[in-house]
């Protein structure tokens, strides 16, 4: 069975529309690389069924589809309101209380215990993805905040709350997150997405929990708050990857700033060799129609041009009517941009920090990409245990194929998120010469390279110890 492999990877959110095995197989054939489990919805037992199906497919078809567990984070919501909805009228006042109640024209409940202590007068409160806007008039610092309706409308139950001006004191990992994290780690999932990250310390705290659990899941920092933008360098340094979650980010910050923020974050992630996902409303019209809008096609294409490692689908594949067609459509858009050979704003070797402990290895990876381009090489072939070399080579966005061999089975799936990388299992580490001969032959047998092709091989010498990459060789396939 043939599977399409794109360089810019595709992440799809799982849900009722994509939970059946035959549908998932078709999606993977069309170009799906990473399955996202959204722990904001569904029960652990429902997610476990999908995990089992994905792993069945990986075993049966020798694919390396990765799994991303996306934790909900401290999502703030209002409570229930009477009659299914209340009308907030411009210029009127309404109380927001931390005392649970059924909302009416006078007061509404908020699921944020320290809300009255954290907000200040004149700060903005956004409800229902920014459709409604309130302004803080006063707070009793105990349980009630008086607000004025700036932009009103119908407010229904359990809508989300965004606080673009407020320093939120809720921890990034809630009790629900810790509960769901336990399952994600127990199931040995590849990536953990942390929502509403504000500082690098949020990532460090999550990594400590993962490490203390004896697991090796990597962390994706979801950037969706102004505080995250302020601390973006520390967050990128601490995390293993970044998701530009444009939904909440576009609510909490001026919409017109989001496109340039996307480009800035993507560039910083490439320079740090950290994969970056662009998410939210990419092909949203395809939830109910089999064709995207022209604006959506441009959005996906521009994300590829920005150098994103992956583009992500949400409702389009979780509850949409056309999950397979959505993947096919996104893959076509990605392929068309990649086939034109645009430069993907790759990292440059001259930007490397000589004081960095991996300066020599990073330069060697950059040199491998340089050599590949100037020898018209068919592939860059590397050995890695940690995955560091794969991330580093990918950040240069090489035109040659990037083929990574590893004895670390969990790494095989994790690398499915990384731009341009194809991963293979290999554990016969006898000698450098023999290993290079073996991996080149494997690629030749599988049709990735041919006799006479130039290949750039990198490895750690001695290869049996698998330390930092320190060897580069130009090979001609025999």
UniProtKB/TrEMBL annotation:
Pathway stated in the Swiss-Prot or TrEMBL entry: Carbohydrate degradation; glycolysis; pyruvate from D-glyceraldehyde 3-phosphate: step 5/5
Domain Pyruvate kinase barrel, chain residue ranges per copy: 6-324
Keyword Transferase in record: yes
Keyword field: ATP-binding, Glycolysis, Kinase, Magnesium, Metal-binding, Nucleotide-binding, Pyruvate, Transferase
The protein, known as: Pyruvate kinase
Domain Pyruvate kinase C-terminal, chain residue ranges per copy: 363-474
UniProt feature coiled coil, ranges: none
Family from the record: Belongs to the pyruvate kinase family.
Listed InterPro entries: Pyr_Knase, Pyrv/PenolPyrv_kinase-like_dom, Pyrv_kinase-like_dom_sf, Pyrv_Knase-like_insert_dom_sf, Pyrv_Knase_AS, Pyrv_Knase_brl, Pyrv_Knase_C, Pyrv_Knase_C_sf
Obligatory cofactor(s): K(+)
The organism of origin for this protein: Mucilaginibacter pedocola
């Amino acid at each position: 069975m043939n599977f399409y492999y794109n360089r810019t990877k595709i992440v799809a959110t799982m849900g009722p529309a994509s939970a059946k095995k035959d549908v998932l197989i078709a999606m993977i054939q069309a170009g799906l690389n990473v399955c996202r489990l959204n722990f904001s919805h569904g029960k652990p037992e429902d997610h476990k069924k999908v995990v089992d199906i994905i792993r069945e497919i990986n075993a049966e078809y020798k694919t390396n589809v990765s799994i991303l567990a996306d934790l909900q984070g401290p999502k703030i919501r209002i409570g229930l309101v009477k009659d299914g909805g209340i009308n907030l009228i411009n210029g009127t006042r309404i109380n927001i209380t931390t005392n649970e109640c059924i909302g009416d024209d006078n007061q509404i409940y908020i699921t944020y215990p320290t809300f009255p202590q954290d907000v200040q007068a004149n700060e903005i409160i956004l409800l229902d993805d920014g459709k409604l806007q309130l302004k803080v008039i006063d707070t009793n610092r105990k349980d009630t905040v008086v607000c004025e309706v700036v932009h009103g409308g119908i407010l229904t139950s359990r809508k989300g709350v965004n606080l673009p001006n407020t320093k939120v004191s809720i921890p990034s990992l809630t009790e629900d997150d810790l509960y769901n994290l336990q399952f994600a780690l127990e199931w040995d999932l590849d990536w953990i997405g942390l929502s509403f990250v504000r500082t690098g310390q949020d990532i460090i705290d999550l990594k400590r929990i993962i490490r203390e659990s004896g697991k090796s899941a990597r962390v994706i920092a979801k950037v969706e708050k102004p505080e995250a933008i302020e601390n973006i360098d520390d967050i990128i340094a601490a995390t293993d990857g970044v998701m530009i979650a444009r939904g909440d980010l576009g609510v909490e910050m001026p919409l017109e700033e989001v496109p340039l923020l996307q480009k800035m974050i993507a560039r910083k992630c490439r320079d740090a060799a950290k994969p970056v996902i662009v998410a939210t409303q990419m092909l949203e019209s395809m939830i109910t129609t089999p064709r995207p809008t022209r604006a959506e096609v441009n959005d996906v294409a521009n994300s590829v041009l920005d150098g994103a490692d992956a583009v992500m689908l949400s409702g389009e594949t979780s509850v949409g009517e056309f999950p397979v067609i959505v993947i096919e459509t996104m893959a076509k858009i990605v392929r068309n941009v990649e086939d034109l050979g645009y430069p993907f704003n790759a990292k440059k070797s001259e930007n490397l920090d000589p004081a960095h402990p991996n300066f020599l290895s990073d330069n060697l990876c950059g040199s491998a990409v340089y050599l590949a381009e100037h020898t018209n090489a068919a592939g860059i072939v590397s050995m890695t245990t940690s995955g560091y070399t794969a991330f580093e080579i990918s950040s240069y966005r090489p035109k040659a194929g990037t083929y990574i061999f590893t004895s670390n089975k969990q790494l095989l799936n994790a690398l499915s998120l990384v731009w341009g990388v194809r991963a293979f299992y290999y554990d016969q580490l006898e000698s450098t010469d023999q290993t290079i001969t073996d991996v080149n032959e494997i690629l030749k047998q599988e049709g990735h390279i041919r006799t006479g092709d130039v290949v750039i091989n990198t490895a750690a010498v001695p290869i049996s110890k698998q330390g930092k990459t320190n060897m580069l060789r130009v090979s001609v396939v025999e």
